[in-house]
Amino acid sequence: MSARLLGWALAAATAIAVIANQRGVGIARDEVIYMQTGARYAEWWIGLASFQHGIGEASITRTFGGPGATDNNREHPPVMKTLFGLSGRLLHDKLGLLDEVTAYRLPSAVMAGLAVALVYGFALALWGVAEAVIAALLLLLLPRALFHAGLACFDAPTMTLWFATVWAYARALDGRRWPWQVGVLWGLALGTKHTALLLPFALGLHYLILGYRARPAGGDLRATLRAMIGHRWRVIVSLAVLGPLTLYVVWPWLWFEPIHHVRDWLAFHTNHVHYNYEYLGRNWNAPRFPWHVALVTTLVTVPVATLAAAALGAGVWIARRGRIATAPELLLALSAAASIGPFFLGTTPIFGAEKHWMPVLPTICLAAGAGVVWAARRAAGRIPERVAITGLAAAVALAALSEVSVAEPYALTWYSALAGGAPGGADLGMNRQFWGVAMRGVLPALPAPAKPTYIYTHASTSTRAWSRTPCSMPAGSRPASSAASSPW
Amino acid sequence: MTALPSRPLPIAAAPALLLIAISGWELCAAARDATAVPAPDAAAWRAAAATVRAGFRSGDLIAFAPDWIDPVGRMQLGDLIPIEAAARMDAARYGRIWELAIRGARSPDTAGLAPVEAVERDGVAVRRYERAPAIVVGDVLDRLASATSDGPRPTLELAEVGFAPHRCLQISPAPGAAVRIAFPRLPLGRELVGYVGIADVFTRRDVRSPGRLEVEIAGRVVASAVAGVDDGWVRFAAPTAPGPADVVFIARATDANRRICFAAEARR
């Protein structure tokens, strides 16, 4: 099997694993909203493409916006929601290939597979096939990430598009004439979740550092600044122009009053309400939050062996710094820092925990890949290097797999062996469950109703999370045209 | 000149050995952790529940430890836990307490007590404690009808305070204005014990100032407590002279919609 094919095989395996795993996961509260609005977004695009309607402010507002801050879920951009809707319409409604929930969740699973492919490709291009395979495998074998990837939500796709942008940026540093990919991918990342706004902090700093290194010897301040800012100026133009432009194109809500609507979008998140979040035995629903929430949560929600390998890999990266002119290790570190950094401030909402800083995971897994290969090569002597790498990689991957096997489908309750597993996490007073996904497991214990019925997961909402007829969409969440055929 | 050996020093294998050791430990630990707690419908829980049912008497209290296992406990024995027990002020009035515990945990309700009976059911410990219960001679929750208020009247609620259910009298004083809730001729014993807290997690989030409660007997403040948003169910107590007395609870808040919940009972 060629190295490239191996990467795609790992990506496919990831998507399949995500799809298989999500079958046991109840429908999350927010997921229902995204499915519902995604179905409407998809209908609108299909209507536009089939000339059933044109581009009118009224129809766009009716579908994508409204006067209220959360009307038609306008607080979140539409890329993934639209894909959820298109997938549901095609793979369930039209072709009948998948049950409704799986059809809506499929795009997120595919994006998880794509993330594995990207990590694999990144490592393959820079270091080697061993690092690539190990990093990809360890990304697949992250219990929380696997769980989040199975929901029709934005967190796994955001990680994918964030990392895709990072890689596109790294490739664009080769001086290519038209580095359009980086701008478009960042635009798609923005079109998925607002957290992509943090990415330019990583790319920008990396860009400036590379420019500083490339400054002319003996140059004055002006020459240094010119080198720092202009050494790959097309990358900057791509990000600055194509990024916002892509966001604009994919989000019809911005087609009218774009500045006003962007301001509303950002204001929603800068003033986001704080939900309850249990951390180390205390409920946190108002700032200031402990500075170490993201650090500790990451430490106990990534398999221990993966973290240990990543720590070795980070050391390897530091030792080898400067060997590659474009400093990819620095880029990965900055990418992780930009993703997780805001959660050290004490004011950023922490309720989503690890899912809100998932773009840190490719960096961790790439470092782990580097760490495993380095450690195995040092140990190789009496045994062939290939055997040493395979054996060590298998040990670390098996440890991660063991965590996955005990975590699902209640991975939000799971904590790594470092915390003592799920019970250890509970003893530590760490957060366990949100969004109501766990309620699916209690359905068999409930008396079977005479007819399909609704199960309410939140006292404060009427969204329906799972019926006695599994794998069916909430009728009220569907477009009116298809609600009648729902088994609910 | 002889060539230096190319074989790496044994120490070079240390990082790999460390990774193998961590991986092996995690493999075992994950498997161990996964079975560390019996499943909610496991035979261990059913056997533990059967033990309790066999010896249960009306008026007994059933407690679970650690507190995060409470839903499983209620699934097994919820029919023996009336609201009055589940939303109790504290456990002092219970002379017999059944404790179902895992992972070596103890319930705060049994602190300082020694079990008179203890059995283990496949990882679920069942312990029975006995003690002289507090004799309650007056409970403000039972006397709300006779209470007077110089402001809004308190209501009897089953409220969430500190993420636990509590039956309590709830009052939301106007900002800066104390509300005096008087219980005329409340029978007293040797001690008045009460608790106060702020109800409703969402108003605790949105209004961050504490609530205050003072207890006045015969015109003299005998106890006071401040309940902050993260303080939960705060105890207060005062020695009292046996016999009926006018007892006044004075609630204060600096912000609107501060849902102060309190309960108190006079003990012989």
Describe this structure in words.
The complex is a heterodimer of chains A (488) and B (268). Chain A is 59% helix and 1% strand. Chain A has 20 helices and two strands. In chain A, α9 packs parallel to α12. Chain A is globular and about 70 Å long. Chain A starts with a helix and ends in a 5-residue tail after the last helix. The C terminus of chain A is likely disordered. With 268 residues, chain B is of the alpha+beta class. In chain B, strands 5, 7, 8, 10, 13 and 15 form a six-stranded antiparallel β-sheet that branches. A five-stranded antiparallel β-sheet of chain B has the order 6-9-14-11-12, with no helix packed on it. In chain B, strands 1-2-4-3 form a four-stranded mixed β-sheet, covered by helices on one side. Chain B contains five helices and 15 strands. The radius of gyration of chain B is 26 Å and the shape is globular. Chain B folds into two domains: 88 residues, no CATH class; 132 residues, Jelly Rolls. The interface between A and B is large, with 43 and 35 residues.
List keywords for this structure.
heterodimer, A: 488 residues, mainly alpha, two-stranded antiparallel ribbon, 20 helices, 2 strands, globular, disordered C terminus, B: 268 residues, alpha+beta, Jelly Rolls, 2 domains, six-stranded antiparallel β-sheet, 5 helices, 15 strands
